[in-house]
Design brief:
This protein has nine helices and two strands; from the N terminus they run ββααααααααα. It is mostly helical. Strand 1 and strand 2 form a beta hairpin. Helix 2 crosses helix 3 and helix 6 packs across helix 7. It is globular. 28% of the residues are buried.
């Protein structure tokens, strides 16, 4: 779909080491961060003792832990996979393949609001006028960890998001790579494939972490 809504802000959740773009209220799919009751019920009842194990697998494969509203619809299946593997019902190779495929679904869900082919001009104006002191810092940081300078059409949302995080008085990024950096680079890497090869290829693309 073509995303024409304006970027209105960013929030950071330090408990899950993750920030998420907030869109305005007219996003057709509903507000980012909303949780369905059915997902909440399954989340609470499906192998709750395996929650930390499932989260650990996501962190290992994805490099960061998404917001709970992104993770929750997929987490019960991850827990069930772990349970089946520990019970000897799944061979290790099959288990690892299924884990990677399922965590790709989580990655794709986290990327879904950044799948437009072009950005509204208002977002570029926001980029030119928002938290400018942090602009060079963000771009230098991303370029250092990526090993190249990303094209702005690939990194626009990631850079805006990181500028907002750097502007927070209560949080400071370390000198070493952080889950925030990994999510930003995941946004960039996914979008690179999206614009060059299409959404299906982006959804199949390797997990960057």
């Amino acid at each position: 779909m073509i995303w024409q809504q304006k970027l209105t802000g960013v929030s950071y959740n330090s408990d899950v080491q993750h920030a998420h773009v907030h869109l305005n209220d007219d996003v057709d799919e509903g507000r980012v961060g909303s949780v369905k009751w059915n997902d909440l019920l399954v989340h609470a009842t499906a192998f709750p003792e395996l929650k930390e194990t499932a989260h650990g697998l996501v962190k290992i494969h994805l490099g960061y832990l998404p917001l709970e509203s992104v993770l929750m619809p997929f987490e019960a299946y991850l827990r069930a996979l772990v349970h089946q593997y520990w019970q000897g019902s799944i061979e290790q190779e099959d288990f690892l393949d299924q884990i990677e495929d399922h965590i790709k679904l989580i990655r794709n869900e986290d990327m879904k609001y950044n799948t437009c082919l072009t950005y509204d001009e208002a977002i570029y104006r926001n980029y030119e006028n928002t938290y400018l002191p942090y602009g060079y810092m963000v771009r230098d940081r991303l370029s250092q960890f990526l090993g190249y300078v990303p094209q702005l059409e690939h990194s626009l949302i990631a850079e805006l998001w990181m500028r907002d995080i750097m502007a927070e008085d209560t949080f400071q990024l370390p000198e070493t790579i952080d889950p925030v950096d990994i999510r930003a680079m995941t946004l960039i890497k996914y979008r690179e494939v999206l614009l060059r090869q299409g959404k299906a290829a982006a959804d199949r693309s390797p997990l960057w972490a």
